[in-house]
Amino acid sequence: MKTRRPKSWRPAYLLLGACSSCYLLFFIWYDCGVSVQVVPSFSRGSRVGTGLRPPQTRFDTLRLTTEQCEATFPGLTKDLNDTVSLGPFNIQPSGDGGPLQVKIEDGQLFIFQPNRTDALSPELLDAQTATLHQLHRAIITSPAPLPDTIITVNVNDQPFGSAFSYTRPAFRPAPSGSHGPPLTRAFLMPHFSFWTWPLPSIGSVSRVAAALSAMESQVPFRSKDHRLAWRGTMGWNSPHYPGLRENLLRVTEQAKWADVQALHGYGLEAPHNTNASEEFNSMRSNALMIEDFCRYKYVLYTEGITYSGRLQFLQMCRSVLVSPPIAWLQHSTHLIKPLFSSDILILPEPKGWQPYEGVDEAWPVHYPPEEANAVFVSPDWSDLERIVAWLEENPGVAEGIAERQRELFVGKGYLSPAAEVCYWRALIRGWSEAGEYESHDWGDRETVSWELFSLGHDSGKSR
Ligand SMILES: *[C@@H]1O[C@H](CO)[C@@H](O)[C@H](O)[C@H]1NC(C)=O
Ligand SMILES: *[C@@H]1O[C@H](CO)[C@@H](O)[C@H](O)[C@H]1NC(C)=O
Ligand SMILES: *[C@@H]1O[C@H](CO)[C@@H](O)[C@H](O)[C@H]1NC(C)=O
């Protein structure tokens, strides 16, 4: 027997219907190229992927076509294109304990049955889930069909063969270090924090973007704390720059120009080794909310064993990003235009520091102060105090560098939801262009649909 819907539901249905039509209409309207009001900064309350609320700016829409993506975010996929142009490679089934593999077929996402002998840590599992959600979001919002392909997704901090990866070394450990991470053909994917990073001091990129828009519109650069800010742990030593963190604490001890502190407790820096429990985090009394770094004029970025997941957050600040030459690339790293301290400081003998072979290859272009959007300093920090003093003496230059960073990553939307899905779709296309596989290697391997997998059903019948 059919049940009848109670009458009182009707208004809700009508409302839902009306909203859905507006939503559809919006996209048709947009896709027809009718200009919509474009606010060139991240709208404050915007949330993505939640359904009924239409995007407020073109940086919130997830439906840009390939042409619109390339016109809106020129250069976004440069590193990806370079990786594709390394030429074809073979996609092999990863063995037991190897990275997860997924299949895109007719615009749907399937997961190959993972056969891990070692369980992923809770943090890695969160990263994996977030990343698969991001991939799925980019697929289902694609205005044009995406190619069928099989993708290896590596959520570890270290790159692994040919795979989607959060990071890849920019150069070998220096100078002429013989061991260290191999240079691999990792296809850089957007960090999982674009979905969310479940740490109390961080959250999602869009949460931080909204918090920052509120703060940055009220605190002009000149009124910010004039010091260089950093928090971190001592535990993560960089293969590229050994002793980096200990030396940092040494040169900034008691310094009036720096607010640099080792975190009480342990963690934060290397995402997957952290203890993410709230209790644990609140024990770190000197931790800063990630957006509060941007209340300082100068924000210091340090890598550790591998990349630091803070980069995309610090890139949204109207603050001067200061870092040793970045040794671990992420998907937005190539947009950095560094001013090298060694190009502007007149240092006593021995004359400053000279970027060495690996750094020169990874960062061949030195930008002048009026074009740069970040500052690279010596990894031994010998010039750190002088560069902060120089920037304080040249406040117009400092503000320009800070402004160009925020203008690119926020004003031009390079870290926006729109740019993220544009990038994912380019990544899928680029990967499938270079990646080749033999169907007989894959034919009898079981898959499970993403919809089932996302509910925790990683075994059983496919589809
Ligand atoms: C990357 O490659 C695509 C496809 O070949 C091309 O359309 C796009 O312009 C390239 N982008 C960059 C930044 O080189
Ligand atoms: C999964 O791993 C176990 C242990 O290494 C192995 O015995 C089994 O054959 C594997 N299963 C598949 C489907 O590869
Ligand atoms: C995380 O921290 C809590 C509280 O200190 C502790 O009980 C727990 O064992 C820690 N977990 C891990 C994986 O270290």
Automatic annotation (TrEMBL):
InterPro entries: CAP10, O-Glucosyltr/Glycosyltrsf_90. It holds the Pfam family Glyco_transf_90. The keyword Oxidoreductase does not apply. Coiled coil: none annotated. Keywords: Membrane, Transmembrane, Transmembrane helix. The chain crosses the membrane at residues 12-30. The keyword Transmembrane applies. Residues 145-438 form the Glycosyl transferase CAP10 domain. This is Glycosyl transferase CAP10 domain-containing protein.
